[in-house]
Design brief:
The protein is mainly β and 373 residues long. Helix content is 9%, strand content 26%. The protein has a ten-stranded parallel beta sheet with strand order 1-2-5-8-11-14-17-20-23-25. It has an eight-stranded parallel beta sheet with strand order 3-6-9-12-15-18-21-24, with no helix packed on it.
């Protein structure tokens, strides 16, 4: 169903253990060793295009950090080719740098890791307060037309290391632009890992995730974008800090009430390293900034492991906005976590309704699945 990279991911926990003790765990693959850190994607001496820049921690490219390469671009249509390595930095792509493409040169997302460790409750160095959820993001993407391939976006902030901090949201990626596509990427974190959002309440940003892997615990895929997740693997993490379920929630959409379409999960997989039934599939997020939101989530043709609570897969974030009043539905899912034991707890699409729950319907005239990967 999905690529080997998605089926056998190096988990965030495994990444942490590997990166603290052995640089070899993130070393270039043999094809990129020596003088070819950028693989088949050229080099500073043989640029794919005049608007291609090369990033390498060892200094064999144009820049040693991703942010420095972003800063060197102006306008539209730039490509960054990123050599294998761990890029410990925060990265921001503003709205003026449209149609950007970032490529992990080894074509294996485990090799190119952009990671930092801010949380919502982390104090800012200038003393002006804490970062907040949005400010905690390792990578923030505001520009339309963004594409990423074979890259890991991570936030390695850990609750256990910061018992004094209550704002434990720690975003790996916040993406807000329209027509944002991610192919064979990984998103690693705990709470609020992947923030698929838009620039404003009135903007319906379309996003596409293909053959990606995301892991976390609390609301780790969330936001108000119109987002399609196709052939993606979602993994829920174990928690030793909690004595009882629920440990967390996979999805927490905050779709604007005026937007007819929110999150669509199609032909995916949801696995877990936590005990059976420890996780809810979703809960609706109605932010205080948009109390008219009507979160929308359709999960179809997806395998759910026993980690999902099949009896009661949905719950409320706030009792003022019960999940039953939102737009949650499923269709032809499988696996122990998808078993329908209490029908009123698992709203299902009819066959006719399912005909409108497709990537084409959600994304309109934009067809990112046709892009070569």
């Amino acid at each position: 169903m999905s690529s080997p990279h998605v089926q056998l991911p190096l988990s965030r926990r495994g990444f942490l253990l590997a990166s603290t003790g052995a640089a070899a765990a993130l070393a270039p693959t043999p094809a990129l060793a020596g003088s070819r850190p950028f693989g088949r994607f050229g080099s500073p001496a043989r640029r794919l295009t005049p608007n291609t820049l090369y990033v390498d921690t060892q200094g064999r490219g144009d820049h040693t950090t991703v942010q420095a390469a972003v800063n060197a671009t102006t306008g539209s249509g730039w490509t960054l080719v990123i050599a294998p390595g761990t890029y410990r930095e925060t990265v921001s792509l503003d709205a003026t740098r449209t149609e950007a493409t970032w490529i992990g040169a080894s074509e294996d997302p485990r090799d190119v890791v952009i990671v930092y460790d801010n949380a919502a409750g982390t104090p800012k160095p200038d003393g002006s307060g804490t970062y907040g959820t949005t400010g905690s993001a390792t990578t923030t993407l505001r520009a339309d037309g963004f594409t990423a391939r074979w890259i890991t976006f991570a936030n390695d902030w850990l609750r256990a290391d910061h018992p004094d901090i209550s704002g434990t949201q720690a975003v790996a990626l916040k993406v807000m632009g329209d027509r944002s596509a991610f192919h064979h990427c990984r998103f690693l974190g705990h709470q609020d890992t992947l923030y698929a959002d838009s620039l404003a309440l009135t903007v319906f940003a379309r996003q596409y995730f293909s053959h990606c892997y995301a892991e976390g615990d609390v609301d780790f895929v969330f936001g108000r974008a119109t987002a399609v997740y196709e052939h993606c693997h979602f993994r829920t993490l174990d928690r030793t800090d909690l004595a009882a379920a629920p440990y967390g929630f996979v999805f927490a959409p905050s779709t604007a009430g005026a937007n007819p379409l929110g999150y669509l999960v199609s032909r995916g997989r949801i696995s877990s390293e936590a005990p059976d039934a420890a996780y809810k599939l979703a809960r609706p997020w109605v932010p205080s900034s948009d109390t008219t939101a009507r979160p929308s989530l359709v999960v179809r043709n997806t395998w759910m492991g026993a980690g999902i609570d099949a009896v009661a897969p949905y719950t409320n974030m706030s009792n003022s906005y019960p999940w039953q009043n939102q737009r949650f539905a499923e269709y032809r899912n499988s696996g122990p976590g998808a078993e329908i034991t209490v029908p009123e707890n698992r709203p299902q699409l009819t066959d006719e309704q399912a005909e409108s729950a497709t990537r084409e319907a959600y994304l309109g005239d934009w067809q990112p699945w046709k892009e070569a990967c």
